[in-house]
Amino acid sequence: MLMLVSYDVATSDEGGPRRLRKVAKLCGDYGQRVQYSVFECDVDPAQWATLRASLLDVINPEKDSLRFYNLGREWKRRVEHVGVREPPQLDEPLIV
Amino acid sequence: MRKLLNTLYVTRQDSYLAKDGEALCVRAEKKTLLRLPLIGLQGVVCFGVVNASPALLHACAESDITVSFLTENGRYLASVRGPTSGNVLLRREQFRRADNPEARTSLARFFVHGKLVNTRTVLRRALRDHEHELDTEALNGAILGINSALDHADAAMDDDTLRGVEGDAARVYFGVFDQLILRRNEFPFTGRNRRPPRDAVNCLLSFLYTLLLHDVRSALETVGLDPQVGYLHRDRPGRPSLALDMMEELRPWLADRMALSIINRRSVKPSDFKADGAGGVTLADDARKEVLTAWQKRKQEELLHPFLEERIPIGLIPYAQAMLLARHLRGELDGYPPFIWR
What we know:
The complex is a heterodimer of chains A (96) and B (342).
Chain A (H helix, E strand, L loop, with lengths): L1 E7 L7 H15 L1 E4 L2 E5 L2 H14 L6 E8 L21 E2 L1
Antiparallel strand pairs in A: 1-3, 1-4, 2-3
Chain B lengths: L5 E5 L4 E6 L2 E6 L2 E7 L3 E7 L2 E3 L1 H9 L3 E5 L5 E5 L6 H13 L1 H29 L6 H20 L3 H17 L24 H24 L17 H24 L8 E3 L5 E3 L1 H16 L1 E3 L6 E3 L3 H13 L13
Parallel strand pairs in B: 1-5, 2-6, 5-7
Antiparallel strand pairs in B: 2-3, 3-4, 7-8, 9-10, 11-12
């Protein structure tokens, strides 16, 4: 299933930049950055549970926020990209 | 629900694969080209000079991701794989089918079918493109011959019959092959011969078959199949029988047509071919480079794979076919779909 994760981390707060880096790194371990604070993670339910728990561990719920959108397995027809920097599609041939 | 994981192909020279968190980074010239989470990957195939950090190789071994290293031309060199790869089951199934006469014949039939259809298409395409320069009667006759060989092959009940049909069809095909050479007076061709090839055309064909064999062999190794245990070709020490099997369907449209276009487009001249004194003919160094460049360029061209319905570079077709064969052996596909060029 494809999970869309977006976040707001209060960077002006003490420890904020550190939390921001940790959130981005965690998301990057499971998915692909599609915009500055938005990641798409193609994960199975177990991987999602792990990722979600780790994210909740990192953020400060008083100051930061996370939003999760479950786009399911048929996510392709629900996503359209317009403009620059189209991220690589992880289920298509990967050639560098 | 089984998820088909992806394979990363790194063809960029001097790139560096590193581990960053739980993701793989491809870096070149101090820039990160790609960052992929390891959880989405099944394998990494590196062509030529590609470096990989030990930390990444450790992580790949732990997550069951096979990293293979091939030369820039695609010859298989080595791979790093973890302790729990599914390959042993796949290989056992490959061997089991090679030992079972019925299963062996049914697999061999797929390869022969693919080959015959593709040789027929080569002849038909030549008729369409150069109708006035060719002996149409001979070519049409050959096409009819291949048609009936196709019927016999599809009905063949044992592998000896299949080999016979395949051999006869090859003789029919190479019997009219000189018609496809538009510079017949400079490049005479009277039939296929090898070890050593005795004329320029045969020399070119043999060279291209070697390149193709390397690619197919690497592709089979990469998906975890044993290139030496085949179905159409009999076991013989040192002979990559399965690679030769899978080559059959790719030969006509990849290698044969490439040989023809190299000759017909005047990329080589008769003096590029030298007699070696022992009755054989070899390629001069410059011409060899010419052929290799043409081959590498051709592999970068993209084409719609008829079964996967995806655009892939021609160079990855052997990998796609090896993957499809592995999927068939694992029981995920009812048959092996040979690569059929339209």
